[in-house]
Amino acid sequence: MNNKKPKIIFYGTPGFAVTILDALVKNNHDIAAVVTAPDKPAGRGKKLTMPPVKKYALEKGLNVLQPVNLKDPGFIDELKKINPDLQIVVAFRMLPKVVWELPALGTFNLHASLLPQYRGAAPINYAIINGEKETGLTTFFIDDKIDTGNIILQKKIKIEDDDDFETLHDKMAVAGASLVLETIDKIKNGNIELIRQEELIKKGEELKPAPKIKKEDCKINWDNSIDDIYNFIRGMSPWPGAFTVLSDGSGKEYYLKIFKTEKEKGSGKIPGSVETDNKTYLKISGKDGDLNIKELQLAGKKRMSTGELLRGFSFEGDVKAV
Fold first, then answer.
1. Domain range for residue 131?
2. How many Å apart are CA 238 and CA 222, to the nearest integer?
């Protein structure tokens, strides 16, 4: 390609992908089209809402495509007319072979883990949930399986003890943008040394998956260790949100999302036991310690501090997490 910038089609949907697309635009890359998910109903009114990538792309005057079916002949024809040199995928669905094999320079993906670990849809969440101290980013050429292609570049990212999904996501998006720019330069200049993922798997090493998180996966198990519960909550905060159900002395049940906590030494109480003064604090016991709940959201209310909630609400009698 010499000094000429490749003609790029960008694929992405959520805010994470917007950060990378913004870096491409600011570095004057030739974005011939942006492919994103169709608009979807959202919120209580089920109003049709555009994905973050589409909103950004329209603001920048970019060509936006929103295919329902990635194998649709009309969509494939549009891609062929554009005739891209390179395609970049960030937080998007799996591409069919007819799409990813189209450009001469190939199609690469930015994945939010150090592959081959944490293949799947939720690598940032699961790295925190599993108590990792380090994660990273990987660019790799797409093949016909999910997150298995040959690696181009990787970058390590430290996970701080107080990182949650949101803070780690934002750090990784910024680092991911610079890794994508570096990857484009290497591909354009033809000086890449690809690494097969199999070469990075040590003998006896277990590969940890990162599958899509469903609502039922978000319920807190208070029989776990306090470290595991703490990591689970921050790995789900603020999205999709770890939750528990509290039952009070009157038999009422309350659906509660928990976002921020502090660990405390064990009180010896039964897991799921709740201690509150109904004014300033709410603590829930795990197997070997307590969690002091700092930020939470009761169903039908907004996210707030525990003190804010308890100023206008109180539980009756003995409370427990069920």
1. 7-200
2. 19
